[in-house]
Amino acid sequence: xxxxxxxxxxxYSEVTAKSALTRVYGMPYFSWSLNPYTGCSHAxxxxxxxxxxxxRERDTGRGFDREVEVKINFPDLLRNELKRLxxxxxxxxxxxxxxxxxxxxxxxxxxxxxEALAESPLPLVIVTKGTLVVRDVxxxxxxxxxxxxxxxxxxxxxDADLARKVEPxxxxxxxRLEAMRRLRGAGLDAGVLAAPILPGLxxxxxxxxxxxxxARDHDATFFxxxxxxxxxxxxxxxxxxxxxxFPVLLPQAAEQFADRINPxxxxxxxxxxxVARVRARYGFGEDREGELDVERERAEAAGEPTxxxxxxxxxxx
Length: 317
Fold this sequence. Notes:
The protein is about 40% helix and about 15% strand. The protein is of the alpha/beta class. It has a single domain (about 10-305), classed as Alpha-Beta Horseshoe (pyruvate-formate lyase- activating enzyme), CATH 3.80.30.30. The strands form two sheets. It has a seven-stranded mixed sheet with strand order 2-3-6-7-8-9-10. A three-stranded mixed sheet has the order 1-5-4.
């Protein structure tokens, strides 16, 4: 943090990548991943992708959210790789970094990545907290005329004040919902992934109901959720957030995640029951084919070989 509680500026480094497509093994919903940036300026305190920096022995704090690498040759690499690709399997965009973080407005790496996919399409899933995705509606529609396209907007709560604290440099929930509505207006498959659900902050039925109601009001085609997951490289940052903004919740969180990265099964079962009631209330079907086990799949799809990821990162939540 800088003076007066302001966050330090982000430093962007232009780098050249060795490859664009990352093969993903054992995932039910996609076989390839694309990450045009390394690190993410959204600065979400709970971000699971900080753990990938830990696996590479890189700083999981400022090194993750204040030092972002821009893969300037990424779209050209992708074009060449797509020419040689035989199986047209699903690709996920944004598994270890948000493809629509702030710098995308300047660098347009994601835009050019989508243009490459429009020329040689693969079924596509995008996960984002960014609203800049609406800029690329034209390209997404071109891809969707050829293969399936799904855009998942990550919205864990519609409480703007909570969002400002826990994910300080993301667009507020309301603009994200409006961006989703605009994609739906263009005929695209877009919905809400309420993730992560934060114990004591966004896991009440009232909070979940508010997100699902907003999703329905903005014409979402699906509503899914994920509990909080705290890997070793993530836990200190989330605990620091609690200590600053919600200190009363810190002892409970420290106990809940003392020797585990996922909530215990009793908590998860209660959360699932609340979500089931909310989903039924607003008419969201099961949609099992489209539902992404995003935390699990992202753990496999961040560019690390499967064998190098800790065992717990390969567990479904």
